[in-house]
Specification:
CATH superfamily of the largest domain: Glycosidases
Shape: globular
CATH class of the largest domain: Alpha Beta
Distance between the termini: 86 Å
CATH architecture of the largest domain: Alpha-Beta Barrel
Number of strands: 18
C-alpha cells in the first residue's frame, strides 16, 4: 500500500497539462487593470504566451480552464526618481507558486507594485517557460503545447540593483542613433519602442542615450515625449546624456562659450533646462568637462553644477555625472588650482548628484592588469566606487563594447566580456551598489549576447528553493541547447581569457587609433598596444629588438594554432546550423583570421627591417604580404555573410551616409571592407605612419574644432 502511495505522489508531482489544447484564465483584481504598466505588460504577456501555446487565454473569465494564473492587487507607485531613496525600485521582487487545485493548475503571483508585476510576467516567460528575449528585433519562442510546470513549483527573483539598464552611446552611429535624434526618421518611434519593449521584457528599468547639439529644437521635444511616455508606461525610466559645454563629438551643450552666445552661462543653462524638460526625463547624465581628458576650472564648474542641480530639482529630474578612468594627474589640462575648495553647504548639495563610476572595454574593477587610458589597471576606480558609496548614491557604469578600433570596428568577437561583466556584477552586488548601467555600443557580431546576459545577471533567481548560480555561458546555453557547441564556446572563452586578455595579445588584435600615432602629449594610450610603435619597428629597431618582437609574433602564431585546433573539433558536428550559432561562428572565425593577419603583417615589418639592417633584398617580404592580403580577402567573405544577416538596414549601419554624429557612416562601416586591416598592410608597404594616412576620421569634427 505504501508503494502504491509513492507511485501516486510521483504521478501528481510530475503532472502536466495534456498535449491537446488547453485554456488559461488570468485572474486579476479589476482595480489593478486600471494601471497602465499592468495593462501593457499583461497585453504583451498574453500575446507572447498565445504564440507559444496556440490556445485561448482569458482574463477574469467564469469558464473552467486547465490553467489559472492568480495575479495580485498592486499598489501603484509613481515613477519619479529625484532623491536618495531608491527602495521603491528595489521593490520589484516577486515570487510564483504553482499547484493543482479544483482540477486545474494554479499559478499564484506575489509582488509589491506594478513594476514587480511586469517583471514577474517576463521573468516567468524567460526564466521558466524558455522564452529568450535576446535582441530588440528577434526572440526565441518555445513550443508550450505541453505545459511544463508541476505541483510544488516555486520560483522567485529579486533585483541585485535598484536601478539597472543601459546607456546607448549615440555619439557614435550605432543602430538607434538616428531614430533617437531625428524626429523624421522612418518609423523612428516604433524602432525606439522595440528597444523599450526589450528592456521591459528583460526586467530593466532605465535607459539613456547621448543627446547631440543638432537636434531640431522646435520639433524634437514632442517626438521624444512620445517614446519617453511609452517608457514610463512600461515601467522604464528615461535619461539623457549631455554636457555642460563639452566640445567633443557634437554633444549637446547646456551653455556655449561667449563668442557663440550673448547670454550668460546660467541664463543659457536655465533656457535649455526649460526647453528640454518639456520631455518628462527621469535623469540627466551630465559631463562637466570640456573633454574627457581635461577638468577645467573646478571651482567655476562646481558653481554651475550646483545651479544646474537646483534647476533640475524643480523639474523632478535626477542629476548624475560620471567618473572617467583617466587619472587626474594624467589629464592634458592637469594643474593644481589655488582656492579650489567649497563650503560645507556646497558639498552637501553636490552629494545629491549621483556618480557613475566608469570602466572600459572588457576589463573589471578587480583586474590587476588593464592597460587602458594610461593605467596599469582600474583598481583606482574600485577605490573611487567604495569612497563615493560612503558619500552619495553611486552606480557602476561598465562597457559591453568599445567602438573606436578596439572590437566591433575591427571587428573582434570577445567573449571575455561575459566573464568580466558577470564578475563585476557579482562583485558590485556584494558592495550593495545601487545602480548598474551598461555602456552599449552596438549589437551585431554577437554583441547582443553581452547586453542580454548582463540584463538578466542583474537578477537573483531561486527555483524550488535552489538559487540559480549565474555563469558566463548561461545565456549561450539558453539559445543553443547543443552540449557539444556549449563545450566549444566554453573553450573559446577560456582561450580568450587566457591568451587574448590574460597574455595581452589584444594589444596586437585591436587596431591603431588616432592617438597611437599622434606626437607628444597627444599620444594617449587609450587601449592596449605594444610597448613599441609600428613606425619604430619599421624604421629604428635593432637586430636584438627584432628578435624580441619575433618572440611576441610567435605568440600570435600559437594562438592561431589553438583557434584552428578548436575549430576542427567544432566542424565534426553537423547540428550547428542555427542562425545564432552561425553568428557566433562568424565572430570566432573573424578572431582567428585577425590573429593570422596581424601575424603576417608583423612578420613583414620584421623581415623588412632586418633586410635594411643587413643591406639585403627582403626575399620573404612579398610572401608575408601576399598571405596577409589573402587572409583579409578570405575574411571579407565572412563579413559579407554576416552583413546578409544584419538586423538593421546595412545602408544605415555599415555604409556612408549623413548622420547627426561626427561620423559620416554607420558604426560597422570600418568592418564593411576591413578598413583597418587594409590600412595596416598599406602602412607597412609604404612606410607611412601619420594618423592622417588612409584616415576615415574627421579629427577636427570629432574633437569639436569644426561643426
Amino acid at each position: 500500500m505504501k508503494h502504491r502511495a509513492s507511485i501516486l505522489f510521483f504521478i501528481l508531482l510530475t503532472w502536466q497539462l495534456p498535449a491537446s489544447a488547453f485554456t488559461i484564465n488570468i485572474q486579476i483584481p479589476e482595480e489593478s487593470l486600471h494601471n497602465a504598466t499592468v495593462q501593457t505588460a499583461l497585453k504583451d504577456f498574453k500575446q507572447l504566451l498565445t504564440a507559444a501555446t496556440r490556445d485561448s487565454i482569458y482574463v477574469n473569465s467564469n469558464l473552467h480552464t486547465e490553467l489559472v494564473m492568480e495575479l495580485p492587487a498592486i499598489m501603484p507607485t509613481r515613477l519619479v526618481y529625484t532623491d536618495h531613496d531608491t527602495s521603491v525600485y528595489a521593490q520589484r521582487a516577486y515570487s510564483w507558486k504553482g499547484g493543482t487545485k479544483n482540477n486545474a493548475f494554479h499559478l499564484v503571483l506575489t509582488t509589491a507594485n506594478q513594476y514587480g508585476f511586469a517583471a514577474a510576467l517576463y521573468g516567468l516567460l524567460q526564466d521558466i517557460l524558455n522564452f529568450s528575449f535576446y535582441h530588440p528585433r528577434e526572440m526565441k519562442t518555445p513550443d508550450l503545447s505541453t505545459w511544463p510546470l508541476t505541483d510544488g513549483f516555486e520560483y522567485s527573483s529579486a533585483p541585485r540593483y535598484d536601478v539597472m539598464g543601459f546607456h546607448l552611446h549615440t555619439e557614435h552611429p550605432i543602430e538607434l542613433t538616428e531614430a533617437f535624434l531625428n524626429e523624421n526618421y522612418p518609423n523612428g518611434e516604433q524602432v525606439i519602442k522595440e528597444y523599450i519593449d526589450w528592456l521591459a521584457r528583460n526586467r530593466q528599468n532605465y535607459f539613456e542615450f547621448n543627446l547631440l547639439e543638432n537636434i531640431h529644437r522646435k520639433h524634437w521635444m514632442a517626438y521624444a515625449k512620445k517614446w519617453v511616455d511609452y517608457a514610463h508606461e512600461r515601467g522604464v525610466m528615461a535619461g539623457v546624456d549631455l554636457s555642460l559645454h563639452m566640445i567633443q563629438q557634437k554633444t549637446f551643450q547646456l551653455y556655449r562659450f561667449p563668442f557663440k552666445s550673448f547670454r550668460t552661462k546660467k541664463s543659457q543653462i536655465h533656457r535649455n533646462v526649460e526647453m528640454l524638460c518639456q520631455v518628462p526625463w527621469n535623469a540627466w547624465n551630465v559631463e562637466f568637462s570640456t573633454t574627457e581628458f581635461s577638468k577645467g576650472n573646478k571651482k567655476k564648474k562646481q558653481k554651475l553644477q550646483l545651479f544646474l542641480l537646483e534647476e533640475l530639482k524643480k523639474k523632478n529630474v535626477k542629476l548624475m555625472g560620471r567618473e572617467h578612468v583617466v587619472k587626474e594627474e594624467k589629464m592634458i589640462s592637469h594643474k593644481v588650482q589655488a582656492g579650489a575648495h567649497f563650503d560645507s553647504a556646497q558639498v552637501a548639495l553636490d552629494r545629491e548628484r549621483t556618480i557613475l563610476v566608469h570602466t572600459v572595454m572588457f576589463y573589471t574593477l578587480f583586474d590587476t592588469f588593464a592597460p587602458v587610458y594610461g593605467n596599469e589597471n582600474l583598481l583606482h576606480m574600485q577605490r573611487l566606487l567604495r569612497q563615493y558609496m560612503k558619500e552619495r548614491e553611486t552606480w557602476y557604469y561598465p562597457e559591453s563594447a568599445y567602438w573606436i578600433t578596439f572590437d566591433n570596428s575591427v571587428p573582434l568577437f570577445l567573449p571575455s566580456y561575459l566573464s568580466a561583466r558577470l564578475g563585476d556584477i557579482l562583485f558590485c552586488d556584494t558592495l550593495n551598489v545601487k545602480g548598474h548601467i551598461t555602456f552599449s555600443s552596438g549589437w551585431e557580431w554577437g554583441y547582443w549576447l553581452f547586453d542580454w546576459s548582463i540584463a538578466n545577471w542583474c537578477w537573483k533567481t531561486t527555483i524550488r528553493h535552489q538559487e540559480v548560480k549565474p555563469d558566463p555561458l548561461q545565456y549561450v546555453r539558453k539559445v543553443i541547447p547543443d552540449e557539444q557547441y556549449q563545450s566549444y564556446f566554453q573553450k573559446q572563452l577560456q582561450l580568450h581569457d587566457t591568451w587574448v586578455k590574460g597574455k595581452n595579445l589584444i594589444r596586437f588584435l585591436d587596431a591603431q587609433t588616432v592617438t597611437d600615432e599622434m606626437p607628444g602629449k597627444f599620444n594617449l594610450p587609450l587601449h592596449p598596444r605594444p610597448e613599441w610603435t609600428y613606425k619604430w619597428l619599421r624604421r629604428k629597431a635593432s637586430e636584438k629588438d627584432l628578435d624580441t618582437v619575433q618572440q611576441e609574433a610567435q605568440m600570435l602564431a600559437d594562438l592561431y594554432l589553438r583557434f584552428d585546433s578548436l575549430d576542427k573539433t567544432r566542424s565534426q558536428n553537423a547540428t550547428y546550423g542555427s542562425l545564432l550559432t552561425k553568428e557566433f561562428n562568424d565572430g570566432f572565425a573573424i578572431d582567428k583570421a585577425r590573429t593570422r593577419h596581424r601575424y603576417y603583417t608583423l612578420n613583414y615589418l620584421i623581415a623588412k627591417r632586418r633586410s635594411i639592417l643587413q643591406h639585403e633584398k627582403c626575399e620573404s617580404c612579398d610572401s608575408w604580404m601576399k598571405q596577409a592580403v589573402y587572409t583579409r580577402e578570405a575574411a571579407l567573405q565572412i563579413v559579407k555573410n554576416r552583413e546578409a544577416a544584419y538586423r538593421y538596414p546595412i545602408a544605415e549601419i555599415a555604409m556612408r551616409h549623413r548622420s547627426h554624429t561626427a561620423y559620416s557612416y554607420g558604426y560597422l562601416y570600418p568592418v564593411h571592407e576591413l578598413h583597418f586591416w587594409k590600412r595596416e598592410e598599406q602602412q607597412a608597404l609604404k612606410n607611412k605612419w601619420s594618423p592622417l594616412f588612409m584616415s576615415i576620421w574627421n579629427i577636427a569634427r570629432i574633437i569639436g574644432l569644426i561643426d
